[in-house]
């Protein structure tokens, strides 16, 4: 009996050891030096074939970045002002000098996002929705990259198991039809954003509008 | 069986209680998405912004950019005089916006000499290979 307990507790101990992986944090040296307060999200570069993807994705970005404590320049105003300034071409904007872009709006940092994937794979039984993004933040003072992240997410609708093979097939067909009619990328895109901006050691340190601003060095 | 039902209900309720956000976003994301989908939804977006602004007169829990965005929609509708106070509000609540808000405020005033102002804007941007046109 006693040896059994010893065995169980040692297994638990090993399990805990296994879970506590050494955390490799991203390099926040430049980010900490810059301490950006305001972030300008510029037009998104689109490598997918879906032409609606950049604007749709743009609508998901203000919320998570603002909730991290940063001032985010308003989406519609930025879009229109940049169009009027001849800056609607995302590729052109991404290759432009961040310092000049920063000056136009008075921004501390520029967030450049590239959509690598934004697609739906139509299968017979379930349609898979897939998104992939690269996030790069550059200082509007030095032009240096101060933060980056990469997110890739795949969603396959859950087919509820009815216990009856024939009924299962029908459920799957309904799911596929629903997704085919309007593949919904938005929840997946939001999920990607939260995972890009929030987690310790990879996300954005708390911005000046959060109480934890400057107190989260242990996490970032 | 009944126990299970109660347990599931409790778990479901816990899952539903969304974490509190710093700001009150109202329907902002949904209405912005609708606007991106259909430019004809500008008025609906404006109404949604106005609702958020009106429910937070003290500015607490008012998200960044909301006042500026509303002001810009008023400008787009030619309501320059009405737009100005919203740009001022954005500046007051979010000093980070001062630079771009001053640019917007300048647009709220009637332009007596358009040609000179245009030259000034182009001059301000000179040296930039990508920005040459006048704003608004």
Mean pLDDT of chain A: 88
Shape of chain A: flat
Work out the oligomeric state of the chains in this entry: heterodimer
Using only C-alpha atoms, the radius of gyration of chain A works out to 22 Å
Low-confidence stretches of chain A: none
Which helices and strands, and how do they pair?
The complex is a heterodimer of chains A (220) and B (136).
Chain A: H1 2-19, H2 29-34, E1 38-41, E2 45-46, H3 53-58, H4 62-66, E3 71-72, H5 75-84, H6 90-95, H7 98-105, E4 109-121, E5 128-139, E6 145-155, H8 165-181, H9 186-197
Parallel strand pairs in A: 1-3, 1-4, 2-4
Antiparallel strand pairs in A: 4-5, 5-6
Chain B: H1 2-16, H2 28-37, H3 42-54, H4 66-76, H5 80-93, H6 98-108, H7 114-125
Describe the protein's architecture and organization.
The complex is a heterodimer of chains A (220) and B (136). Chain A has 220 residues and is of the alpha/beta class. In chain A, 40% of the residues lie in helices and 20% in strands. Chain A has a domain at 24-118 and 130-153 and 185-197: Rossmann fold. Chain A is flat, with a radius of gyration of 22 Å. The N and C termini of chain A lie far apart (46 Å). Chain B has a domain at 22-109: Alpha Horseshoe (Serine Threonine Protein Phosphatase 5, Tetratricopeptide repeat). Chain B is 63% helix and 0% strand. Chain B has seven helices and no strands. Chain B has helices spanning 2-16, 28-37, 42-54, 66-76, 80-93, 98-108, 114-125. Classes of the chains: A alpha/beta (220), B mainly alpha (136). At the A-B interface, helix 3, helix 4, strand 3, helix 5 and helix 7 of A face helix 2, helix 4 and helix 6 of B.
